[in-house]
Write a structure and sequence with these properties.
Shape: globular
Low-confidence stretches: 1-9
Number of helices: 7
Distance between the termini: 41 Å
Radius of gyration: 18 Å
Helix content: 10-25%
Structural class: alpha/beta
Oligomer: single chain
């Protein structure tokens, strides 16, 4: 009887970029499932919708999305761009802290966390199952617009209907923000996080969604959820996205960002693009395409 063939160990972190004293890697938070209706507007042509999902290797009404976090290290800081889902979302996700440890980064080493927006897969990883901060020495940066959004007592009216079937997302955002509020600094477009790393406004997915740009000729942009799907966001950027809080602004942000990335040949990191979520944008057939790299 022959022995079983060994399986290749899963890769949970990948070095991506080095510029001067800045080093960037991506670390997996695992994956989760999302209804296709969250990302694909019902008004899209059915044949094109099916072709786009098939091109991404996806079928049916449930999509499996990876969740990837960018980590930026300088001489004195370890910066996370978002924190993954934490323990309260889905059992296949919430793996960031353990994968950081495997990459030699204990939670206590993290000094700054940029929260691109307040959705569960980006924010809920700030707390463990007992509502204690997972990263005890970190300060938090979030856009002033995003902070005010979730602090609004009437936030429900500012979210798309697909997110308000129950109050779990709203209550979760308020709870997680409340436990770190004393360590939060609000930021805006152009603000510097550390030397060579700055905030750029990319609103639409949420009202205060931000991305992070690392400077230099060979720099990159951490786009978070400004570009969420490896086919739809690039080949059909003008399709409204049902989960976007402001779909029209989401479209204009995607078009502006895609054009800039294509012209500047700037590398990007996307939270839900196929792991490790990095690549370039090229113009193709009147739209764009994502080229993994």
């Amino acid at each position: 009887m022959s022995s079983p063939r060994p399986t290749r160990a899963a890769i949970h972190s990948v070095p991506i970029h080095k510029s001067g004293s800045l080093e960037t890697l991506v670390v997996s938070d695992g994956y989760f499932f999302l209804p296709a209706a969250f990302l694909v507007t019902p008004g899209s042509p059915p044949a094109e919708r099916e072709a786009a999902l098939n091109a991404a290797g996806q079928t049916g009404e449930q999509l499996q999305l990876v969740n990837t976090v960018a980590v930026i290290r300088s001489q004195s800081d370890v910066i996370l761009v978002d924190t993954g889902t934490g323990p309260r979302h889905q059992p296949t996700a919430g793996k960031l802290a353990e994968n950081l440890k495997a990459a030699g980064i204990p939670p206590a080493a993290v000094t700054k966390i940029v929260l691109t927006h307040g959705h569960p897969d980006h924010l809920w990883g700030v707390l463990d199952a007992n509502d204690s901060p997972i990263y005890p020495n970190a300060s938090y940066l979030v856009s002033a617009v995003e902070w005010n959004l979730w602090a609004d007592a009437d936030v429900k009216r500012r979210l798309p209907a697909i997110l308000t079937a129950n109050d779990r997302i709203i209550n979760g955002a308020k709870n997680h923000f409340s436990h770190v509020k004393d360590k939060i600094r609000t930021v805006r477009d152009g603000d510097e996080i550390v030397s060579g790393v700055q905030v750029i406004d990319t609103p639409g997915h949420t009202q205060g969604h931000i991305s992070v740009e690392i400077a230099g000729e060979d720099g990159l942009v951490v786009v978070a959820d400004a570009l969420t799907h490896a086919v739809i966001s690039f080949q059909h950027p003008s399709w409204p996205v049902p989960v976007d809080h402001e779909p029209d602004r989401g479209i204009s942000t995607r078009l502006r960002l895609l054009d800039r990335l294509a012209v500047d040949k700037r590398r990007l990191i996307g939270a839900h693009l196929p792991f490790p979520g990095t690549g370039f944008v090229e113009r193709k057939d009147g739209a764009y395409r994502f080229v993994p790299a």
